[in-house]
Every structure is written in C-alpha cells, then in structure tokens.
Amino acid sequence: MIRVEKLSYGFPAKDLYHEISFTLETGQHCALIGSNGTGKSILADMLIRPDEYLFDGKIIKDESCRIGYASQFSIRDKLQECTVFEYLSQKFLENQEKIAAVCEEMAVSEDVETVCERYQALLDMNEAMDGGNYESNIRKQLHVARMSDLEGTMLSQVSGGEYKLLQIMREMLLSPNLLILDEPDVFLDFANLNGLCQLINEYRGTLLVITHSRYLLNHCFNKILHLENGDMQEYDGNYTEYRCSILREKLKLRLQNLEEQEEIERTEEMVEILRKRATVLVNPVIGRSVNAKQSQLNRLIARQIKAPFIEVRTPEIVLPDVEPEEGRTVLSVKDYQPSFDKDLLRNVSFTLLAGEKIAFVGANGTGKTTLIRDILTNNHPSIHMDENTSFACLSQLQGELIDEKKTVFQVMQDQGFHTRRSTGAYLAKLCLEEDLLDQRVGQLSGGEQNLLQIALVANSDAEFLILDEPTSHLDIYAQLALEKAVSEYKGTVLMVSHDFYLVAGCADYVLFVEDHTIRRMRIRNFRRKAYDKYFDQKYLETDKKRQELETHITSAFKRNDFAAVDKLCLELEGLSEK
Questions:
Q1: Cα of 19 vs its chain's centroid, Å
Q2: pLDDT at position 33
Q3: Most buried of 6, 368, 428, 528, CB within 10 angstroms?
C-alpha cells in the first residue's frame, strides 16, 4: 500500500530521518513509537501530504490509496449543534446530496461525459464507504465502543474523551485505505481507553497509530515501527515480541562490539611495538609491517558497529528536595461545587496534609480539571490553600501556563537561567536538545512541551505539586522517569490522571469521582476496582513484572554484566510467552 525508501529529511538545525525505509501492507495494524521529538507526527503528515515537503528518498503510494487522519488534539466546533448520530452521518449525507445534485445536472448539461465521470467517482466513493449501510454501521461502531447510549445525545454534551473517540469513529466509518491516528489515547479515561482498544481491534482496514500507551501497545498491533536517532527499526510482530527481540539484538551487538574493541586494542599495541622497532632499526621490512598493521587498524575502526539502535536516552527527572512539616494542612476543600455548572462535581470535601500524594480519578468530563483551576486561582469560597506553602503546577492545557510565543530560552530566562550553556546543560538532562532553545514553545511537540513544564517544576522549590495529566504525550521512557521522580518526591502531590501505572505506583490514596461527588479510596481498593471494571488483573501483574525485568536488564547493561543480561532476557521471553 505504502512503501518508503531511504527517506531523509530535517531542518537546518536538526536531521530528523536518515535514509529510513519501511512498508505498510494492507490490513496491518502498525504502531509508530519513539522518543519525544523524533518526528513521528511529521512523518505521518509526510505520508498524507508528501508534496508539501522537500525530502530525499521516495514515498510510494498505491494510486487508489485514500488516507484518513485523526489528530492528537481534539478540537470541538462549538457552533456545531447536532446529535452524536447526526455527527457520524454527516459525510455520508453530504455524499448523497452531491450524487443527487449531479443527477439533476445530467439532465441539463451539454458536457454529459464529464458529468458522468463525476457521478461515477461519487458512486465509487459511496461504495467504498459502504454508504448504503451507513446507519447500521454507525450503530455497530457505537456498540463496539460501548457508547450506544449516546446516539441521541447532543454533541455539545459529550465529554472531551467521548468526543475524541467519536472523531476516530467518524474517520473509521469512511473506510480509508489507510487510517492514521496520532496519539488517540491522550486524556482518555479507563472506559474510553477500553473503547478505543476495541475500535482498533475490530477495525478491518490498515492502521498507523502513533502512541506511547503501554496498554494499547500490548493489545492492538501486529507491526512495530520504532523511530529513534534518525533511524527506523521495522518489526513484524507484537510489541512484547519486539521488546524481547531488540534487547537480544542489543546484547549481540554489545558482545560483538566488545570483541571488536579487544581486537582494536591488540592491533594498536602491535602497531606501537613495530613503530618503536622502526625507530631503532632501519629496516624496510619493519616499515612495511608498520604500514600494513596501521591499515588493518584503520579498517577495524571504520568497520566497528554503531551504537545499538536500542540506545535511547531516559530523562533524568529530579523533583525539588523538600522536607514536609508533618501534620500541616496544605489544602482544604469543603462543600465545593463549580459556580457555573451544576452537572459537574457537587459537595466535594477533602483535606490534603503535607507529604501526602493523592490522585483524582474519574470519567472524562466530570469536572476534575475545573477543580484544579479553582484550586490554582484560590479564590473560591470552598477552597483554602496554605499561604505559606510554595507550589508549582503542570497543566494538560500546555499553553495555559507558558507563553507559547516565547522561545524555550526566553522561558528558561524567566526562571532564572542566564546563559545558553547552563540552560542547554539543564534541559539536556530531560532529553531536550540544545537546538530547541531558539524554537518557540508552540512549535514543540506535545511531549517536548510537557518535558519543558516538568523542567520548570523541577527547577522550583515547590513543596506542593499540582499535576494535571502529567504523563500525557510523554514517551514511555519519560513516563517511567516521571513515575520514579513522583514516587521519590517527599513533598505534597495532588494529581489528576488517567494513567493507571502512575496512580497505582505513586498515590497514597485515590479520590474517585462518581455520581457528581468523590469518595476516598485506598490504593488496594482502587486497584481492585480497576481490575474488576476495566483491566485484566493477570495482564497488569505480568506487565509490572515485565517492566521490572527490563529495568534490571538496563542496569545489567550499564554494569557490562552480559551473563546477567542473557539470564534476564530468558526470563522476559518466558514471561512474554505466558
């Protein structure tokens, strides 16, 4: 369907891809993964609009290839007032109206042949979309996503997560030859994430999905494209198999590299010995031997393997080092209700003590982010924040706290950094490269913007962190790094998150939003509720063991303990087979 051959592209300050090649075959469900800022979204856009880019290499598409696309950003048309069913029907009804209009034109047109060609093209489009059965297909899709009860709901009344699923569903119903989804899981609650998983698995067409969701990666794909350091790794198989395969490949390359380095060292010693002899004895044979050994050494150095593809940088996130005053009330909320909307939270009350970490968890659209905003403004009569507690915030609405028109360097200067060198060194720890310093914040990828927010939070002296969807858009390595940093932070944390791993691994307890109010829930009970309603307990336990094994493998690689790596890889493969 699509074949990419030796594609190279980049900007004056940065090369994104260097001669990458891959194929997308009919019916494949392919995940495109990679670290933040590697150019995944740009690559997707290049497949859709190759004529708008100047690149080296080839993008070869079948002539009949129609590409559908759903953005990572869910933007609702506030003027559009219709039901969910009408929203999903729009494209089909528009095509039917065009067909009817062309039929009327046929009766009066002098250029019948041209009109007939347009008529046939519209009929072909209608057939490709299965337009004759669009009503039943819409209801089937709603059922698959467990959203049948929303059929007659006004579009303005559905939550942000539900609207995002409806956008994806609408693209799927049009039956493109290739559907590209860019981070479709961002901000989805547990129920909608399951709905998305079902939609992807039931979809019969070809999919290319950019995602950092461990849950989707482990459940939905039969091909992996891994973009890293300008290179592309292509793997036919699921994500778990890919992880095992690439760790094995890394071990093989490390052992090969070790042998090469030993051979290079032996050859260097021999060259040095021969050179010393040549300075003492004037002998042409020794001179030729020196030249021959030096040539051999040059070939060995030139042929040595590159750093293994798997070598990806993990952000070094260290949150402020604070000592909380035990027993002090940092935040109190009593009988809270948003003043503008009675359908959101009602009669919410809770107290947050210094050093506690709590997570707000609940369905999309229940008012969690509204509460966070009211806490930050601290002028709601039901909310009181301790005025002596310094706080920092990370917002899911990335332009809310940072001026997107400023450059990264200007933002960091506002935070007390004075030189480009110190700023670049600090951001490098979070895997934000120096070439980003002169980019405007609004030009960064979603993941890079989130890392920049984390950099600002980490550079503060905050005793209280307010985190609204902190892992959104972050790649898997950054997610793990943030989980570790939050768990080690001694200060107070209030977070809103749909990331099960972050909540289950870092929170002391959960404030679960249900029926317009909250109830306090122990982590053990939260886990049980999540297992019962949304996730398979065996999968989550296995996935946790898998992450632990991969962490041990990374540590063993750093120690050059390759025997341990081999043993741990065997354990990982055995776990994956189960």
A1: 24
A2: 93
A3: 368
**Whole-number Å distance between alpha carbons of 199 and 210:** 15
**Contact indicator for 207, 200 with CB cutoff of 8 Å:** yes
Q: What does the alpha-carbon distance between residue 22 and residue 226 come to, in Å, rounded to a whole number?
A: 10
383: CB partners within 8 A, 6+ apart: 331, 332, 333, 336, 374, 375
**Distance between CA atoms of residues 425 and 413, nearest Å:** 14
Amino acid sitting at position 394: L
336 contacts 373 by C-beta, under 8 angstroms:
no
- Residue 403: which of 391, 417, 415, 392 has the closest Cα? 415
Tens of pLDDT, residue by residue over 379-415, are: 888 999 998 899 999 887 655 668 888 999 999 998 8
Q: Is the pLDDT at 378 greater than 60, yes or no?
A: yes
Contact of 175 with 67, CB cutoff 8 Å: no
Q: Are 337 and 349 in contact (CB under 8 A)?
A: no
What one-character DSSP code corresponds to residue 343?
T
| Residue 276 binned pLDDT confidence (cut-offs 50, 70, 90) | confident
Q: Which residues contact 251 (CB under 8 A, 6 or more apart)?
A: 562, 565, 566, 569
Band of pLDDT at residue 29, cut at 50, 70 and 90: very high
User: What are the residues whose beta carbons fall under 8 Å from the beta carbon of 460, sequence distance 6 or more?
Assistant: 320, 390, 392
Distance CA 365, CA 162 (A): 9
Asked whether the beta carbons of 448 and 436 are under 8 A apart, the reply is: yes
**181-193 residue pLDDT tens:** 999 998 888 888 9
CB atoms within 10 A of CB 371: 27
Residue 161 contacts by C-beta under 8 Å, 6 or more apart in sequence? 187, 188, 189, 192, 363, 364, 365
pTM: predicted TM-score of the whole model, two decimal places: 0.82
The residue whose two tokens read 């479709």 is 184
- Counting Cβ atoms within 10 Å, is residue 105 exposed (0-12), middle (13-18) or buried (19+)? middle
Contact 455, 426 (CB under 8 A): yes
pLDDT at 259: 81
* Residue 12 CA: distances (Å) to CA of 227, 435, 531: 20, 10, 49
Strands 329-336 and 383-385 turn out to be antiparallel
Cα-based distances in Å from 167 to 88, 95, 367, 370: 8, 18, 22, 24
Q: Would you say 350 and 330 are in contact if contact means Cβ atoms under 8 Å apart?
A: no
**Which pLDDT belongs to residue 341?**
57
Cβ count within 10 A of residue 141: 23
Cα 148 to Cα 488: distance, rounded to the nearest angstrom: 43
Q: What pLDDT shows up at residue 254?
A: 82
Count CA atoms closer than 13 A to 313's CA, side-chain side.
14
- Give the pLDDT confidence of 60-105 residue by residue, as tens digits: 988 878 899 998 776 776 567 899 999 999 999 999 999 988 888 8
Q: Say if residue 308's pLDDT is above 60.
A: no
Phi and psi at 220, nearest 5°, equal -125, -10
